[in-house]
Amino acid sequence: MKTRSIAAALTAPLALLLVACGTTESGGDDEAPRANDSADCANDQTETATGPVSLTDSYGREVELEQPAERVAVLEWQQVEDVLSLCLTPVAVADAEGYSTWDTAEELPEGVTDVGTRGEPNLETLFGTNPDLVIVEAYTADDEIIKQLEKYDVPVLATKGADAKDPIQNMLDTFELIAQATGREERADVVVDDFNASLEEAKQTIAEADVATDSFVYFDGWIQGGNVAIRPFGQGSLMGELGEALGLTNAWKGEVDPAYGLGQTDIEGMSEVGDATFFYTGTTDPAGDVNAELAKNRVWQQIPAVEEGRSHAFPEGIWTFGGPRSAQRVIDAYVDLLTQ
């Protein structure tokens, strides 16, 4: 299962941050950054701001740019998606293959330099692309990855990984912060308006639908030592709060982590959520097909949601920690699966 973000780098030896990790070379510092030529962006009529940029990032760090950033390197998937939603193409990203598997809300064009894993980016390759801004997901202003990046004398925008107090607003704040840094605030308004309109329309659709139950649990999982570990998205999770924003009730009441609202349980634990409808990731983890393992389990098959056909896979490639475009796909999936 793909875990969250660059947090692994915080406990690894600092030398690991410079390890070469399956990079893909691009044109280097004399190659102009390309626009995102997706169909959505091909029709974009918004303008890019000009002039100096002065902003405060998610951790109170002052970021000063002579002009809006154009050559952006990005080390986390939500922020990669956000840059693409703003109709820009990053010059470098971490784990391009993983992004293209787990987050299909915005397609990553070919030729973007891959700087290795999110937890162990190759900084030499990253800065070889001559970025004018590096966007990283962090957990404190003193994160080790920020210190490492700042040694290269390139502005670093630190965004907040999660906020269980209001995950939807944190997702939007991150997106708008990147828009400000790149001068794409006008485009960001279009995307955020699209998200809000989708949410309101979906809420009305759910309210008018004859759903079996408004109680739900979204989960993913992984195989560990031959056993299935299940990760419910509880209170404070983006997936949980998007469901509740539609008028549903998150049935997972177990312990969750304070940042992402994620719990951990097993098959027996999931049998205790009553008549809740199940939703789960439809993206198959290359490390092991959790859903195939669950299907073999007798106890799992007797849980009401499974037995009654109310256990639904989301479409592949919906990143559960994504930006506004991923969130729209989440909303659409909830509606489609509940009203089919």
TrEMBL record:
<dbReference type="InterPro" id="IPR051313">
    <property type="entry name" value="Bact_iron-sidero_bind"/>
</dbReference>
<feature type="compositionally biased region" description="Polar residues">
    <location>
        <begin position="43"/>
        <end position="55"/>
    </location>
</feature>
<keyword id="KW-0732">Signal</keyword>
<keyword id="KW-0813">Transport</keyword>
<protein>
    <submittedName>
        <fullName>Iron-siderophore ABC transporter substrate-binding protein</fullName>
    </submittedName>
</protein>
<comment type="similarity">
    <text>Belongs to the bacterial solute-binding protein 8 family.</text>
</comment>
<dbReference type="GO" id="GO:0030288">
    <property type="term" value="C:outer membrane-bounded periplasmic space"/>
</dbReference>
<feature type="domain" description="Fe/B12 periplasmic-binding">
    <location>
        <begin position="71"/>
        <end position="340"/>
    </location>
</feature>
<dbReference type="InterPro" id="IPR002491">
    <property type="entry name" value="ABC_transptr_periplasmic_BD"/>
</dbReference>
<feature type="region of interest" description="Disordered">
    <location>
        <begin position="25"/>
        <end position="55"/>
    </location>
</feature>
<dbReference type="Pfam" id="PF01497">
    <property type="entry name" value="Peripla_BP_2"/>
</dbReference>
<feature type="signal peptide">
    <location>
        <begin position="1"/>
        <end position="20"/>
    </location>
</feature>
<dbReference type="GO" id="GO:1901678">
    <property type="term" value="P:iron coordination entity transport"/>
</dbReference>
